[in-house]
Design a protein that fits this description.
The chain has three helices and ten strands; from the N terminus they run ββααβββαβββββ. It is α+β, with helices and mostly antiparallel strands and about 190 residues long. The protein has one domain: Aminopeptidase, CATH 3.40.630.30. Strands 1, 2, 3, 4, 5, 6, 7, 8, 9 and 10 form a ten-stranded mixed beta sheet that branches. The mean pLDDT is about 90.
Amino acid sequence: MYLVKHHHKINGGILEIKREMTIRQEIDKDFKNVFNLIEKAFRTEVYSDHKEQYLVERLRNSEAFIPELSIVAEIDGKIVGHILVTKLKIKGKFNEFDSLALAPISVLPEFQGKGIGGKLILESHKKAKELGHKSIVLFGHEKYYPKFGYKQADKFGIELPFKVPKENCMVIELIENGLNGISGIVEYPKEFNG
Protein backbone atom coordinates (compact mmCIF):
# COMPACT_ATOMS: atom_id res chain seq x y z
CA MET A 1 0.00 0.00 0.00
CA TYR A 2 1.34 3.44 -0.96
CA LEU A 3 0.13 6.98 -0.32
CA VAL A 4 -0.20 9.32 -3.29
CA LYS A 5 -0.77 13.08 -3.03
CA HIS A 6 -3.65 14.34 -5.14
CA HIS A 7 -4.63 18.03 -5.46
CA HIS A 8 -8.17 19.38 -5.82
CA LYS A 9 -9.05 23.01 -6.51
CA ILE A 10 -11.75 24.24 -4.14
CA ASN A 11 -12.92 27.88 -3.84
CA GLY A 12 -9.77 29.20 -5.46
CA GLY A 13 -7.52 27.24 -3.08
CA ILE A 14 -5.85 23.88 -3.48
CA LEU A 15 -6.71 21.02 -1.19
CA GLU A 16 -4.12 18.28 -0.90
CA ILE A 17 -5.55 14.82 -0.32
CA LYS A 18 -3.47 11.74 0.37
CA ARG A 19 -4.99 8.68 -1.24
CA GLU A 20 -4.06 5.03 -0.88
CA MET A 21 -2.65 3.25 -3.89
CA THR A 22 -2.40 -0.50 -4.38
CA ILE A 23 0.02 -2.13 -6.79
CA ARG A 24 -0.93 -5.62 -7.98
CA GLN A 25 -0.74 -8.07 -10.86
CA GLU A 26 -3.09 -7.34 -13.74
CA ILE A 27 -5.99 -9.81 -14.12
CA ASP A 28 -8.26 -10.62 -17.08
CA LYS A 29 -11.03 -8.25 -16.03
CA ASP A 30 -8.54 -5.33 -16.08
CA PHE A 31 -7.75 -5.66 -19.79
CA LYS A 32 -10.36 -3.19 -21.08
CA ASN A 33 -9.50 -0.57 -18.44
CA VAL A 34 -5.78 -0.99 -19.12
CA PHE A 35 -6.36 -0.61 -22.89
CA ASN A 36 -8.19 2.71 -22.28
CA LEU A 37 -5.60 3.86 -19.75
CA ILE A 38 -2.70 3.30 -22.18
CA GLU A 39 -4.54 5.09 -25.00
CA LYS A 40 -5.13 8.13 -22.73
CA ALA A 41 -1.59 8.09 -21.32
CA PHE A 42 0.02 8.30 -24.79
CA ARG A 43 -2.62 10.43 -26.55
CA THR A 44 -0.55 13.64 -26.46
CA GLU A 45 2.90 12.03 -26.37
CA VAL A 46 4.97 13.44 -29.25
CA TYR A 47 7.39 10.48 -29.56
CA SER A 48 4.67 7.87 -29.87
CA ASP A 49 2.79 6.07 -32.61
CA HIS A 50 -0.26 6.11 -30.28
CA LYS A 51 -0.65 2.35 -30.68
CA GLU A 52 0.95 1.20 -27.42
CA GLN A 53 -2.40 -0.26 -26.25
CA TYR A 54 -2.37 -2.66 -29.24
CA LEU A 55 1.25 -3.63 -28.49
CA VAL A 56 0.20 -4.64 -24.96
CA GLU A 57 -2.65 -6.75 -26.39
CA ARG A 58 -0.26 -8.52 -28.78
CA LEU A 59 2.32 -9.13 -26.06
CA ARG A 60 -0.32 -10.58 -23.69
CA ASN A 61 -1.00 -13.25 -26.31
CA SER A 62 2.66 -13.99 -27.00
CA GLU A 63 5.29 -16.36 -25.66
CA ALA A 64 7.13 -13.31 -24.31
CA PHE A 65 4.35 -12.57 -21.79
CA ILE A 66 4.97 -13.08 -18.07
CA PRO A 67 1.65 -12.57 -16.19
CA GLU A 68 3.39 -11.53 -12.93
CA LEU A 69 5.14 -8.69 -14.80
CA SER A 70 1.97 -7.04 -16.08
CA ILE A 71 1.31 -4.80 -13.10
CA VAL A 72 -1.32 -2.15 -12.34
CA ALA A 73 -1.54 0.73 -9.86
CA GLU A 74 -5.02 1.27 -8.44
CA ILE A 75 -6.52 4.15 -6.43
CA ASP A 76 -10.05 3.84 -5.02
CA GLY A 77 -10.68 0.82 -7.27
CA LYS A 78 -9.63 2.76 -10.41
CA ILE A 79 -6.62 1.68 -12.45
CA VAL A 80 -4.37 4.74 -12.82
CA GLY A 81 -1.13 3.13 -14.01
CA HIS A 82 0.24 0.04 -15.75
CA ILE A 83 3.66 -1.41 -16.54
CA LEU A 84 4.54 -4.35 -18.76
CA VAL A 85 7.83 -6.26 -18.72
CA THR A 86 8.25 -9.08 -21.24
CA LYS A 87 10.94 -11.53 -22.35
CA LEU A 88 13.56 -10.68 -24.95
CA LYS A 89 16.89 -12.07 -26.14
CA ILE A 90 20.33 -10.53 -26.41
CA LYS A 91 22.07 -12.19 -29.35
CA GLY A 92 25.86 -12.36 -29.25
CA LYS A 93 28.17 -13.71 -31.94
CA PHE A 94 28.00 -17.25 -30.65
CA ASN A 95 25.41 -17.23 -27.84
CA GLU A 96 22.02 -15.83 -27.01
CA PHE A 97 21.01 -14.64 -23.57
CA ASP A 98 17.67 -14.13 -21.84
CA SER A 99 16.70 -10.67 -20.65
CA LEU A 100 13.56 -8.57 -20.27
CA ALA A 101 12.04 -5.54 -22.02
CA LEU A 102 10.34 -2.78 -20.05
CA ALA A 103 7.67 -1.26 -22.30
CA PRO A 104 5.33 0.37 -22.10
CA ILE A 105 4.73 2.18 -18.82
CA SER A 106 1.51 4.22 -18.66
CA VAL A 107 -0.06 6.57 -16.11
CA LEU A 108 -3.34 8.44 -16.58
CA PRO A 109 -2.55 12.09 -17.45
CA GLU A 110 -4.25 13.48 -14.32
CA PHE A 111 -2.12 11.19 -12.12
CA GLN A 112 1.23 11.83 -13.82
CA GLY A 113 4.02 13.49 -11.84
CA LYS A 114 3.04 11.84 -8.55
CA GLY A 115 5.63 9.07 -8.51
CA ILE A 116 3.25 6.33 -9.67
CA GLY A 117 5.44 5.36 -12.63
CA GLY A 118 8.45 5.07 -10.34
CA LYS A 119 6.57 2.80 -7.92
CA LEU A 120 5.53 0.58 -10.84
CA ILE A 121 9.14 0.39 -12.08
CA LEU A 122 10.45 -0.59 -8.64
CA GLU A 123 7.71 -3.21 -8.22
CA SER A 124 8.53 -4.68 -11.66
CA HIS A 125 12.22 -4.90 -10.68
CA LYS A 126 11.35 -6.66 -7.43
CA LYS A 127 9.02 -9.18 -9.11
CA ALA A 128 11.41 -9.85 -12.01
CA LYS A 129 14.23 -10.52 -9.55
CA GLU A 130 11.99 -12.88 -7.52
CA LEU A 131 11.25 -14.77 -10.76
CA GLY A 132 14.97 -15.25 -11.35
CA HIS A 133 15.56 -12.67 -14.09
CA LYS A 134 18.91 -10.87 -14.13
CA SER A 135 18.45 -7.79 -16.33
CA ILE A 136 15.99 -5.43 -18.05
CA VAL A 137 16.52 -3.47 -21.27
CA LEU A 138 14.61 -0.34 -22.24
CA PHE A 139 14.47 2.52 -24.71
CA GLY A 140 13.51 5.63 -22.80
CA HIS A 141 14.22 9.09 -21.41
CA GLU A 142 17.88 9.52 -20.48
CA LYS A 143 17.09 11.78 -17.48
CA TYR A 144 14.29 9.63 -15.97
CA TYR A 145 15.43 6.00 -15.91
CA PRO A 146 18.95 6.42 -14.44
CA LYS A 147 17.19 7.38 -11.17
CA PHE A 148 16.15 3.72 -10.94
CA GLY A 149 19.60 2.29 -11.67
CA TYR A 150 19.52 2.13 -15.48
CA LYS A 151 22.80 2.65 -17.35
CA GLN A 152 23.65 3.11 -21.02
CA ALA A 153 23.49 -0.27 -22.73
CA ASP A 154 26.56 0.35 -24.90
CA LYS A 155 28.71 0.38 -21.74
CA PHE A 156 27.85 -3.34 -21.49
CA GLY A 157 28.34 -3.99 -25.22
CA ILE A 158 24.57 -4.21 -25.75
CA GLU A 159 22.89 -2.52 -28.72
CA LEU A 160 19.29 -2.05 -29.78
CA PRO A 161 18.40 -3.32 -33.27
CA PHE A 162 17.51 0.14 -34.60
CA LYS A 163 19.29 3.49 -34.85
CA VAL A 164 18.58 5.60 -31.78
CA PRO A 165 20.68 7.89 -29.56
CA LYS A 166 22.92 5.80 -27.28
CA GLU A 167 21.80 7.69 -24.18
CA ASN A 168 18.22 6.42 -24.68
CA CYS A 169 19.22 2.72 -24.80
CA MET A 170 19.51 1.51 -21.23
CA VAL A 171 19.84 -1.61 -19.11
CA ILE A 172 19.74 -2.50 -15.44
CA GLU A 173 21.34 -5.43 -13.69
CA LEU A 174 18.76 -6.81 -11.25
CA ILE A 175 21.47 -8.77 -9.47
CA GLU A 176 25.15 -7.96 -9.08
CA ASN A 177 27.00 -8.76 -12.33
CA GLY A 178 23.69 -9.76 -13.94
CA LEU A 179 25.14 -8.84 -17.35
CA ASN A 180 28.55 -10.36 -16.80
CA GLY A 181 29.80 -11.93 -20.05
CA ILE A 182 26.66 -10.81 -21.90
CA SER A 183 26.83 -8.60 -24.97
CA GLY A 184 25.18 -8.42 -28.36
CA ILE A 185 22.15 -7.06 -30.16
CA VAL A 186 18.74 -7.00 -28.52
CA GLU A 187 16.11 -9.10 -30.25
CA TYR A 188 12.62 -7.96 -29.35
CA PRO A 189 9.65 -10.34 -29.57
CA LYS A 190 8.12 -10.11 -33.07
CA GLU A 191 4.99 -8.58 -31.50
CA PHE A 192 6.92 -5.31 -31.08
CA ASN A 193 6.96 -4.97 -34.87
CA GLY A 194 3.14 -4.98 -34.94
